Amino acid sequence: MVRARDEFLSAGHFSAPAERLAKDVARTLDGTSLVLDAGAGTGHYLSRVLDTSPGTVGLALDISKHAARRAARAHPRAGAVVADLWRPLPVRDGAAGTVLNVFAPRNAAEFHRVLQDDGLLFTLTPSSRHLGPLVDSLGLISVDERKTERTDAALAGYFKLDSRQHIETEAALNHGEVATLVAMGPSAHHVPAEQLWPRLERLEDPVPVPLSFVLSLFRRLK
User: Fold this and answer.
1) Is 181 exposed, middle or buried (0-12, 13-18, 19+ CB in 10 A)?
2) Per-residue pLDDT, 33
3) What confidence score (pLDDT) does residue 141 get?
4) CA separation for the pair 217, 196 (Å, rounded)
5) What percent of the chain has pLDDT over 70?
6) CB contact burial 67-99 (16+ within 10 A = b; e otherwise)
């Protein structure tokens, strides 16, 4: 799963949300604060943020030691720690100016604790339109139509929504790229390869795939 994620993201298929996130975070940084990426995976998004913010340092947290190894090499100003987001984070109180949470679990209480008083939380989640017809055609796990609402509810009491953007784009993916996309997410445990490829062969090659994301900015409540 980590290898698939690294391959797919490195190819630039999710460049639209990565660039938007990096630009939005850069506008809020003072150039010296710590950016904490909670559930960083390979460090792809954290690396893009650090590229746009010279002087800022980053810390990637991920439960996978394989992901953490890759994240530690993702940028010269980033480090990585293996950590379970559902447990107390190995970060002192008020250490971070910004927390990133990209396609990962949200621990509102811990995010609130590790952020400075005026800290910001950026979340990036898929919308119910993400991957469009691929969901039914390949039998993938669908995104709950109330996912954004549930995200807000999970953060209530600790954070206040400041702004929200919907990012809609499309990628023309060949069958191998679609297989890599499936392998990097939760559907990898849901659709075995022996079932995936026969379904893929019924689709055009390349196949247009809608990509839909929700980028939200939350402010820490005092």
Assistant:
1) buried
2) 86
3) 93
4) 36
5) 100
6) bbebbbebbebbebbbbebeeebebeeebbbbb
**Burial class, 36, CB count within 10 angstroms (exposed 0-12 / middle 13-18 / buried 19+):** buried
Query: For the chain, what's the residue count?
Result: 222
Which phi and psi (to 5°) does residue 34 adopt? -90, 135
AA identity, residue 92: R
Q: What pLDDT score was predicted for residue 6?
A: 94
Q: Where are the beta strands (DSSP E) in the chain?
A: 34-38, 57-62, 78-82, 96-102, 115-126, 159-173, 207-220
* 8 Å CB contact between 139 and 188: no
pTM of the model: 0.95
CA distance linking residue 63 with residue 85, whole number of Å:
7
8 Å CB contact between 73 and 95 = no
Q: Which residues of the chain have pLDDT under 50?
A: none
Amino acid 208: pLDDT: 96
| pLDDT confidence of residue 193 | 86
For residues 102 and 213, give the distance between their C-alpha atoms in angstroms, rounded to a whole number: 10
Q: Which two tokens stand for residue 128?
A: 């119910």
